[in-house]
Amino acid sequence: MSRQRSLMERIRHWMSWGLHGAMTCEEFEAGLVDYLDGTLSPIDRHRINLHTRLCSHCRRYLRAYDKARRLAGDTIRYSDEQALMSVPEDLVQAILAARQEDSADTRR
Amino acid sequence: MKSDGAGVRPTEGSLQQDDVEAEEGALVARLKAGDERAFEILVRRESGRLLAAARRLVRDEAAAHDCVQEAFLSAFRAIGSFEPRSSIGAWLHRITINAALMRLRKQRRLAETPIDDLLPSFDADGWRRDTVDVPDGDPESELERRRVRDFVRGKIDMLPDGYRTALVLRDLEGWSTKEAADALGIAEGAMKVRLHRARSTLKRLIEPLWTGDISA
């Protein structure tokens, strides 16, 4: 889906090229993993911060990207809690039986 | 427990920690001595956690059970060499993850597959084309939270194995980029690309939560 950008936003983007460390949305995208890991150089971090301030699209994108990460973590942690509440007895019995068999094989 | 400093009394927390460590040490000693009852205690204590870890990587329930079983057997065979630098639970967890990765690798399911339609797109000038507004706040009712979790879980499971694995190892297991790259047999740079694609794709897949079109 293509969006029409407001004139003001385009002007701010064009102006940003004159600022130290400006970047395109595509370059912003490429640096996100390192940005969130905190492994970017101070200059590159500054460029990402600057782009985030100037580009409302990337600001929204970053927010959604971060929220998706958080939701995934919450969902998996909840699944883990559920798994801890009910350990399948057939799994426990299968492991104990396999252990007996393994021990017998080792003794032979 | 801190032992330096005369007259420093151990806190309740440090005593509890000592109890846990002593209990863990006793269990490991029994396991090393071949005590079958200790093995059963360990299986009952850790199976749920390990099954949850395996399920994150292999979606098939029977395969997840197999991974847990393989992990226990491998661990028990190697218990003589276990050194309690970490807990036995953490050791088993790592073995389970490796068993699950090995299974995916054998099935050749860790290769990168095309997901271009779900990745962000840019115009010729490098402008971003797609963005969605995320509403403030989280669901308030338990029913709504459960609905969101079910939806997100379904979308995580929709990710191709190679991407889901990258997401699980880095964002959920907390492995470093290097550890995850080594486990998947790819370069660190490729690991970062794969992780970013996994996160972006998941974001795209769960956007209906924010646009109100949850049936998507």
Fold and architecture overview:
The complex is a heterodimer of chains A (108) and B (216). By secondary structure, chain A is an all-alpha fold. Chain A has one domain. Chain A is 78% helix and 0% strand. Chain A is built from six helices and no strands. In chain A, helix 4 packs across helix 5. Chain A is elongated. Chain A starts with 6 loop residues before the first helix and ends with a helix. The model of chain A has no long low-confidence stretch (mean pLDDT 82). Chain B is mostly helical and 216 residues long. Chain B has two domains: 95 residues, RNA polymerase sigma factor, region 2, helix turn helix motif (Rna Polymerase Sigma Factor, Chain: A, Orthogonal Bundle); 96 residues, Orthogonal Bundle (Arc Repressor Mutant, subunit A), CATH 1.10.10. Chain B is built from nine helices and no strands. The longest helix of chain B has 22 residues. The radius of gyration of chain B is 22 Å and the shape is elongated. The N and C termini of chain B lie far apart (54 Å). At the A-B interface, helix 2, helix 3, helix 5 and helix 6 of A face helix 2, helix 3, helix 5, helix 6 and helix 8 of B.
Helix fraction of chain B by DSSP (H/I, runs of at least 4): 55-70%
Using only CA atoms, what is the Rg of chain B?
22 Å
Poorly predicted runs of chain A: none
CATH architecture of the largest domain in chain B: Orthogonal Bundle
In total, how many beta strands of chain B? 0
Instruction: Look at the structure and give the mean pLDDT of chain B.
Output: 84
